[in-house]
């Protein structure tokens, strides 16, 4: 069996990685249950079935082995689909094996400039917000987009999130300071205004911080309306964008900082709530693997996706039912990283609590998943894979389209022309507390 222990020398050895890839490909080739999930499996089986290979993984050319890795966009769904995951004796963990292969290649050859740019969401976000609205105007210029594609490998036709001059954290700190009648702190924990028995630490996500602060503001208002005290501990990017590109050292540095801060918040009696399913998945599933400390396990066990937390309140009969505005029909897309958490359809359940609301659930992959769908190499393929999602959204023709994932929202808008909003903003509007 191959190792997934980051501290093991074997983890990084290219020949050992290749051996493990072929072992798992052989198992997958005999099962084929994951064929409909993503391009990785289709290409794997196509390459195994050519006459020259005839199902023998040892005859599979190295380029074909690597192509399967490159086509994996880390949706994580194959792990839940696979009958051979641990504790099965075959110990198949396809998503982490793909991450291992990328990490080993990056360690041997260096992290590509493309992956360094896409992985450093903090720097990109800070620069974009600091220069907004100029940054947004630049991103609409064809000549600038052609330059970005040539230098950073982000496809020139990919729609990009807009930056906001006022970040979510600056709004939160100012709001807390205004409530207390003091000057906002430059750093450290900022605490919102509602003292309550229920307490959460809000993990903002880079998307909410720099690109969609309105979603964060809506989340805080909804949580407070439901009697929840919200704090904002010091935090950094969750690390998933770096991890996608094989930059494990950079990802682990971010993880260490977050674990230190978030574990302290948990010890204060707070649960961690994240409005983005990729980040909540990362904190729950990847932090114990990447960090391995007891604090990382504590953070993982205490993390809830935003609507997972609200769904818990609903199940306890504690969700505020004081809705004042109807919503009507909603087409709700379930992100892959939320499906991979095996928590059910909490977002749809909560939205259905709004009187007069019908929710049409769409479980189709958006095929962006982190940085993959932004890359010039995979942009067109990502649109092709996401076509069933586009068709479902268009055929439903609901006045409101929603998804918890900001990248899925970008993809839906790219493929259908319809703007998808975070469900928390729908809930805030139903409460009458939207901006």
What does this 3D model show about the protein?
The chain is of the alpha/beta class. The chain folds into 4 domains: 9-109, no CATH class; 113-152, no CATH class; 168-312, no CATH class; 321-431, Rossmann fold (3-Layer(aba) Sandwich). It has 24 helices and 9 strands. A 5-stranded mixed beta sheet has the order 1-3-2-4-5, with helices on both faces. The chain has a 4-stranded parallel beta sheet with strand order 7-6-8-9. Strand 8 (400-403), helix 23 and strand 9 form a beta-alpha-beta unit. Mean pLDDT is 94; it is low at 184-192.
Keywords:
single chain; 435 residues; alpha/beta; 4 domains; five-stranded mixed sheet; four-stranded parallel sheet; 54% helix; 8% strand
The neighbouring-strand order within the major sheet is 1-3-2-4-5
Task: Tell me the number of structural domains.
Answer: 4
Cα distance, first to last residue?
54 Å
Derived from helix and strand composition plus strand pairing, the structural class reads: alpha/beta
What percentage of residues falls in helices of 4 or more residues?
40-55%
Task: Indicate the mean pLDDT.
Answer: 94
Radius of gyration, CA atoms, in whole angstroms? 22 Å
Unreliable stretches (pLDDT < 50, length at least 5) are 184-192
- The rough form would be described as globular
Number of helices: 24
Which band does the percent of strand residues land in? 5-15%
How many strands, which pairing sense, and closed or not: the largest β-sheet? 5 strands, mixed
What is the β-strand count? Answer: 9
């Amino acid at each position: 069996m191959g190792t997934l222990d980051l501290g093991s020398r074997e983890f990084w050895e290219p020949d050992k990685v290749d051996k493990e890839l072929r072992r798992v490909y052989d198992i997958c080739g005999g099962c084929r249950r994951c064929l409909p999930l993503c391009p990785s499996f289709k290409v794997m089986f196509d390459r195994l079935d050519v006459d020259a290979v005839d199902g023998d993984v040892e005859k599979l050319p190295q380029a074909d082995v690597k192509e399967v890795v490159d086509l994996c966009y880390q949706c994580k769904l194959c792990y839940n689909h696979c009958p051979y995951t641990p504790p099965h004796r075959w110990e198949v963990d396809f998503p982490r094996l793909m991450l291992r292969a990328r990490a080993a290649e990056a360690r041997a050859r260096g992290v590509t400039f493309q992956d360094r740019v896409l992985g450093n969401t903090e720097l990109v976000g800070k620069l974009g917000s600091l220069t907004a609205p100029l940054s947004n105007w630049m991103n609409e210029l064809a000549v600038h987009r052609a330059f970005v594609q040539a230098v950073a490998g982000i496809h020139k036709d990919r729609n990009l999130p807009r930056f906001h001059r006022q970040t979510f954290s600056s709004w939160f700190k100012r709001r807390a300071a205004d409530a207390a009648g003091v000057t906002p702190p430059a750093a450290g924990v900022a605490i919102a205004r509602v003292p309550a028995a229920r307490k959460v630490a809000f993990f903002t996500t880079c998307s909410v911080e720099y690109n969609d602060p309105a979603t964060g503001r809506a989340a805080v208002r909804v949580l407070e309306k439901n009697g929840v005290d919200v704090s904002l501990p010091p935090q950094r990017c969750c690390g998933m964008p770096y991890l996608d590109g094989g930059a494990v050292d950079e990802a682990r540095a971010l993880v260490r900082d977050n674990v230190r801060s978030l574990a302290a918040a948990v010890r204060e009696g707070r649960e961690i709530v994240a409005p983005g399913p990729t980040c909540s998945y990362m904190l729950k599933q990847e932090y114990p693997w990447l960090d391995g400390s007891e604090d990382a396990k504590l953070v993982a066990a205490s993390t809830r996706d935003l609507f997972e937390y609200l769904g818990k309140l609903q199940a306890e009969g504690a969700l505020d039912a004081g809705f004042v505005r109807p919503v009507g029909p909603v087409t709700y897309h379930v992100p892959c990283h939320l499906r991979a958490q095996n928590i059910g359809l909490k977002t749809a359940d909560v939205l259905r609590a709004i009187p007069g609301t019908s929710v049409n659930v769409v479980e189709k992959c958006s095929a962006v998943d982190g940085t993959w769908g932004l890359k010039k190499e995979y942009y067109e393929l990502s649109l092709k894979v996401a076509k069933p999602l586009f068709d479902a959204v268009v055929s439903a023709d609901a006045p409101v389209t929603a998804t918890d994932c900001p990248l899925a929202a970008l993809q839906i808008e790219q493929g259908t022309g319809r703007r998808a909003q975070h469900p928390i903003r729908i809930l805030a509007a139903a409460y009458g507390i939207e901006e």
